[in-house]
Amino acid sequence: MLRFSPVVFLALSLMVACLGQPHPVKNRFIITVPDETPSAAVNAAGRPTLLLGAVTSAPAYDGRGLVYRLGPDRYESDFYNEFLVPPTRLLAEALADRLTRAGKRLRVAAAPGLAVADFGLETHIQDLYGDFSLAPPRAVLALRFTLNDLRPIAAKVILDRLYPCRRSLPEGARAADLVAAYGLCLNDILNDLARDMDLAI
User: Fold this and answer.
1) Cβ 148 vs Cβ 155: under 8 Å
2) What's the Cα-to-Cα distance from 192 to each of 10, 13, 188, rounded to whole Å?
3) DSSP H helical ranges for 53-174
4) CA nearest 31: which of 84, 108, 97, 100?
5) CA-CA distance, 57 to 62, in Å (whole number)?
6) Between helices 175-200 and 87-102, what is the axis angle to 10°?
7) Domains of the chain and any CATH numbers
């Protein structure tokens, strides 16, 4: 007859208990931009080229978990609700799609080496969180865009602006409500960016 020491018995009991527990279910989201911008005509030769640089993020928002502000200095990352991929990648795809669709004056390139770029756009996520320290809660998204003219020998900045957006959420808002509000914010921000770029170029 086999005999187990108390330590081995305890370890086996914990293993059985863990195997019997359901695994936590994670919800994963993407940011959907409700864009009704019609596709631009096929890019014509000779059109100035806009090179989209990599999207960067403040360290607090470079993970996949949704971030909540719960007090003046208290933030929390959600283990159960997260973006499907890091938000920098989601925003890079949305930015490339919008500027390609809306581009009437520029040819958009999302990777270096494809063409000699006339302009370069840098994007930085400054804020990306749900502010649940307020009533009603709000979705907060702030992006900084820097547009550089690369045609002179020394590149120069022709647009450098922070685009903040805050949208109220319903009482009892869930993660899906927060992500939907991010999409609406991003739509507004990209509309403003496209307008400002047309004025700057």
Assistant:
1) yes
2) 62, 60, 6
3) 87-102
4) 84
5) 6
6) 40
7) 6-200 (3.40.50.10610)
Q: Rounded to whole angstroms, how far apart are CA atoms 130 and 8? A: 46
Distance in angstroms (rounded) separating the CA atoms of residues 183 and 94: 10
How confident is the model over 127-156, as pLDDT tens digits?
999 999 989 999 999 999 999 999 888 889
Strands 74-83 and 65-71: antiparallel
Strand bridging mode 65-71 / 119-131? parallel
pLDDT digits (tens, 9 = 90+) for 17-61: 555 556 678 999 999 998 666 665 555 567 889 999 999 999 999
State pTM to two decimals: 0.84
Rounded CA-CA distance 95/109 in Å is: 11
Sign of the torsion angle spanned by Cα atoms 143, 57, 89, 115: positive
Q: How many CA atoms lie within 13 A of 68 on its CB side?
A: 18
Total residue length of the chain: 201
User: How far apart (Å, rounded) are the C-alpha atoms in residues 182 and 190?
Assistant: 12
The rounded distance, in Å, linking the Cα atoms of 94 and 64 is 17
